[in-house]
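Tutorial, part two.
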Amino acid sequence: MSPVTHFFIGWLVANTAKLDKRDRALVTVAGIISDADSLVIVADLLAGKSEPFRWYGEFHHVLTHNIGFAFLVTLLGFMLAKRRWITTFLVFISFHLHLLGDIAGSRGPDDYQWPIPYLWPFSNSFQLVWEGQWKLNAWQNVVITGIVIVLTLFFAWKRGYSPLEMISAKADAIFVRTLRQRFGNP
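Running the prediction step on this input gives:
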């Protein structure tokens, strides 16, 4: 799935409980942080065209798409959260929804399925993969992205804050005010 979709899913998970801004941000970030391992593509691009995307192909869905990284992210969520137990639980769920989304909808244009070595770094013997995995640009991903964007807009309108709160309180207030001017007050 697209990182944008993962982001919005994480934000929606954060809104299943009454959390403050920081705890919502922790849950949201947990839903997208797994894609940090895709940053190895920068090294591939800098290396030139002799062996394009070698590291990306080798390490994406490995370094941060596993139970070891899930434990690290969950521990950090616990340490940084104000409402520790509920936030930690939602961080763990948000992280794993990312993995589920990738298992369901991350097939590459070359039909590569991107298996997830779930037990890594402890073991490489078990990999999560689904034969029915649809392509990254498949209609299913487009529909899911559309649904999570609509839900995000609804929650922003209803609750008075949006994912923009993580970037700018002023931009968030303007965005929510615009939604409410267009659709009325909840």
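The CA atoms of residues 86 and 149 lie 24 Å apart. In part three we will examine how such features are distributed along the chain.
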